[in-house]
């Protein structure tokens, strides 16, 4: 055991957006901060490396955002995707605080691209990072370095010793040694447990072995499990997560945002038996894309297949892998290993149920729906008739899990009703405090930024 000689005021566990917001805020308050990031330096940043945008409340044009996006509208969007399973007090805190976060992000090196228009329908609600999440992470690391924040890479935290109502020390493995550090404050921002597929399988059952992990392979929930085992208050359902339907050709880990497919609203989606199983046009994609991971997970072999025709190919953001292409539906079925007769019949039944398509509008709910079809398609329902035909395979891609550490409005953790005096949490490791189920595009970054800054402020106040 090697006792770290130069003891920091605050240890921040994790190296993504929430951790960096906490470290920067604490350092600006005068605290000496050490970040323990389990990944090697080229892979630093956790899932934040793969993000694209930040969902932000605003009362008028703000940065790249146009018009306004009020607290009540934002909350209504969140309630719709979560089915009301959220802590409204913490949700409103995240939403309300997001407005001041965007200028703070800009002040700390984050750059935004011009307002995004088109099929994602996000020009009012989501600010997109210039250069993506990796640029955001790099900007924050540069800011942290200027503030004197120390970073240890490939530093895997193995244990936080809970002594009554405080963390007495932090143990971590680094450079072949087990080290111990005794900070005044600890911020846990080390993500969920999704990269531990055995843990996923214990929660979900054997089907989870077929899931792909969109984000970092380093989020294995080691710190989360350690704290929960010691009685720190937990929140969330281990089977609930941010899971989307991604390209079935994506790698097992770390495929990131580019493996996401945005074509579902303009398609039909079938299972391996070539049968439709859900309304592809239920809502605009940023409000509904996160339900499709769970829908695909419920299908045989946890796979689905998107079918579109030539007239829909350019209506969504391009995919990283080209679609499978064929001149006939029978040929497409053969290439995708689907039963050809069943696919042809499913498409024929869908086409027959499509009505007047003159009102088709790809960027908003258009009411162009099927008639007498189960399940229906309630928007963007156009016959699939124009060759060539295209297809994508779908698999469940897990971004992060919602089982986590329960926090209050100060981002503080507790044992029962007793706060742990020097322990705070931010980001995906506490997101289940707000997200009971479902997901809203860009909201993970909102949670991480808001609660990272709160945790950093509170940890510094305690240390000082």
Automatic annotation (TrEMBL):
Its cofactor is FAD. GO terms for molecular function: oxidoreductase activity. Pfam families: FAD_binding_2. The keyword Oxidoreductase applies. Residues 9-436 form the FAD-dependent oxidoreductase 2 FAD-binding domain. Keywords: FAD, Flavoprotein, Oxidoreductase. This is FAD-dependent oxidoreductase 2 FAD-binding domain-containing protein. It comes from Sagittula stellata (strain ATCC 700073 / DSM 11524 / E-37).
């Amino acid at each position: 055991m090697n006792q770290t000689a130069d003891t920091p005021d605050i240890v921040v566990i994790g190296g993504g957006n929430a951790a960096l917001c906490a470290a920067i805020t604490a350092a600006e308050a005068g605290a000496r901060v050490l970040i323990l990031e389990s990944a090697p330096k080229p892979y630093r940043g956790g899932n934040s490396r793969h993000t694209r945008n930040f969902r932000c409340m605003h009362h008028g044009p703000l940065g790249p955002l146009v018009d306004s996006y009020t607290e009540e509208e934002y909350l209504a969007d969140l309630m719709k995707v979560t089915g009301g399973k959220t802590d409204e007090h913490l949700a409103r805190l995240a939403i309300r605080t997001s407005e001041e976060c965007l200028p703070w992000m800009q002040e700390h090196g984050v750059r935004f691209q011009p307002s995004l228009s088109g099929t994602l329908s996000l020009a009012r609600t989501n600010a997109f990072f210039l250069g993506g999440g990796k640029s955001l992470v790099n900007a924050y690391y540069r800011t942290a370095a200027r503030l004197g924040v120390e970073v240890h890479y490939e530093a895997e935290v193995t244990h936080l010793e809970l002594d009554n109502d405080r963390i007495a020390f932090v143990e971590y493995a680094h450079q072949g040694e087990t080290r111990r550090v005794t900070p005044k404050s600890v911020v846990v921002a080390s993500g969920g447990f999704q990269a531990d597929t055995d843990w996923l399988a214990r929660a979900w059952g054997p089907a989870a072995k077929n899931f792909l992990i969109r984000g970092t392979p380093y989020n294995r929930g080691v710190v989360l499990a350690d704290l929960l085992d010691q009685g720190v208050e937990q929140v969330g359902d281990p089977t609930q997560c941010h899971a989307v339907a991604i390209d079935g050709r994506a790698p097992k880990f770390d495929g990131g945002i580019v493996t996401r497919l945005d074509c579902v609203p303009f398609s039909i989606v079938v299972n391996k038996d070539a049968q439709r199983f859900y309304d592809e046009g239920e809502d605009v994609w940023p409000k509904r894309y996160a339900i499709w991971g769970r829908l695909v997970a419920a299908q045989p072999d946890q796979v689905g297949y998107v079918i579109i025709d030539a007239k829909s190919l350019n209506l969504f953001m391009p995919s990283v892998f080209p679609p499978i292409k064929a001149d006939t539906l029978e040929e497409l079925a053969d290439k995708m290993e689907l039963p050809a007769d069943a696919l042809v019949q499913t498409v024929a039944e869908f086409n027959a149920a499509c009505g007047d398509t003159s009102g088709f509008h790809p960027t908003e709910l258009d009411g162009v729906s099927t008639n007498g079809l189960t399940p229906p398609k309630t928007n963007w329902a156009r016959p699939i008739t124009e060759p060539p035909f295209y297809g994508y395979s779908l698999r469940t891609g897990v971004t992060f899990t919602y089982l986590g550490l329960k926090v209050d409005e100060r981002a503080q953790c507790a044992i029962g009703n007793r706060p742990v005096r020097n322990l705070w949490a931010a980001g995906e490791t506490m997101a289940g405090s707000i997200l009971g189920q479902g997901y809203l595009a860009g909201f993970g970054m909102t949670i991480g930024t808001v609660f990272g800054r709160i945790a950093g402020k509170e940890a510094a106040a305690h240390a000082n």
